[in-house]
Design brief:
Blueprint lengths: L1 E5 L3 E5 L2 H5 L2 H6 L3 E6 L16 H18 E12 L12 H10 L7 E9 L8 H6 L8 E8 L17 H9 L5 E2 L5 E2 L16 E3 L13 H8 L2 H11 L11 H11 L5 E4 L6 H8 L3 E6 L2 H10 L11 E2 L2
Parallel strand pairs: 2-11, 3-4, 3-10, 5-9, 10-11
Antiparallel strand pairs: 1-2, 1-12, 4-6, 5-6, 7-8
Helix pairs in contact: 3-4, 7-9, 9-10
The structure holds S-adenosylmethionine.
């Protein structure tokens, strides 16, 4: 495998991750990865440039990743996989392939994984798709989220939701100030104690619906502090601007850097190792570098690897020195 570049914290390789996990690379990192964070090629119906498989072939391929990934994980490590929906070719019918693939992945006997939690990553500015049924026939609504599955070999992988607290809502802030609210039984049968909401814990606990852009500009977008700072920086702007300048077409399926940093913060500590086997433009490595985690990334495509260099040249990464090896 060709090492393309490295920094103090990470390394980016060009190669086939599956072949390499089965070989010397897999041996080197066995049991050492705290977080595998990746968006694999999606089960799309139209073949994209980066080699998507389809139907049963996809499911089989996806399930085979499961024991390979499990072997790399530290005993309390986590796997985060982001996958979008797929549709039946030529029909306004959603495919079940992503769900079947998840069942096959998590059900693999050799891997002993479990689904810790499913997250929905909602993108309000997603272009209308599937276009035929949404914009022409107007018989479906916009498919606007991806699934994010969190899996582990343990029921209790390393995780700490106090690291990803979001700012309190305005009404909660008022309540904390006034120290008064209606306690008692709610219509949902929940009993709210007289003091349950009176202590200030520094923020509210995140939900498993992740929204990284405001739908309503008047409404506060309540992301954790660190994620908010990612949202406010020019990370994507820098990457897109630099791609434009170099006349490079940016990777068509980039992961949201807020999503990557959310899970890195939540599931790892400083210096833990984060691995992305389908790294593309290296969003995962970029976010890991910013959050002081070690990282390893692999992608099979020369073209995407080339643009992955741009990410780590972002001036936001003030202390990062990129050493090009190829
Ligand atoms: C959905 S994209 C990932 C995009 C990435 N998360 C980003 O933010 O740019 C999937 C990537 O998997 C890569 N890929 C497909 N098969 C691969 C393999 N066997 N080994 C390594 N990379 C592979 C493709 O080149 C593509 O860049």
């Amino acid at each position: 495998m060709n090492k393309l570049y490295k920094t103090k914290l990470g390394e980016y390789y060009i190669g086939d991750s599956i072949k390499n996990i089965k070989g010397a690379f897999g041996k080197k990192f066995k049991g050492k990865v705290q977080l595998i964070l990746t968006s694999p090629p999606f089960p799309l119906n139209s073949k994209k440039k980066y080699g998507n498989k389809q139907g049963e072939e996809y499911k089989k391929w996806f399930a085979e990743l499961s024991p390979l990934f499990a072997d790399l994980l530290a005993p309390n490590g986590s796997i985060i996989i982001e996958l979008g929906n797929a549709w039946e070719p030529g029909r306004p019918v959603q495919s079940l392939l992503h769900l079947e693939s998840l069942l096959a992945f998590v059900g693999s006997k050799d891997a002993d994984l479990r689904l810790c939690q499913e997250f929905i990553c909602y993108n309000p500015s997603r272009l209308p798709s599937p276009a035929q049924w949404v914009t022409v026939n107007r018989i479906r609504t916009v498919d606007s989220y991806t699934h994010v599955w969190w899996m582990s070999k343990s029921d209790f992988p390393k995780a700490d939701n106090t690291k990803i607290l979001r700012p309190y809502s305005q009404s909660m802030k008022r309540l904390l100030k006034k120290k008064k609210y209606n306690s008692g039984k709610r219509p949902s049968e929940h009993v709210i104690g007289e003091k349950s909401f009176l202590s200030d814990n520094g923020g509210s606990i995140m939900h498993n619906l992740l929204e990284f852009e405001q739908i309503d500009p008047e409404r506060d977008l309540r992301l954790p502090q660190n994620i908010m700072s990612f949202a406010n920086t020019s990370s994507n702007d820098y990457f897109l601007k630099a791609c434009r300048q170099k006349e490079i077409k940016p990777h068509p399926a980039r992961m949201s850097s807020q999503l990557a940093s959310f899970f890195i913060e939540f599931l790892t500590d400083k210096n833990d190792l984060v691995f992305d086997p389908f790294a593309g433009s290296n969003t995962t490595g970029y976010c890991a570098e910013r959050l002081n985690r070690k990282w390893v990334s692999i992608d099979i495509s020369d073209e995407y690897s080339e643009q992955a260099k741009i990410r780590l040249q972002d001036p936001e990464l003030k202390t990062t020195k990129l050493k090009l090896l190829n």
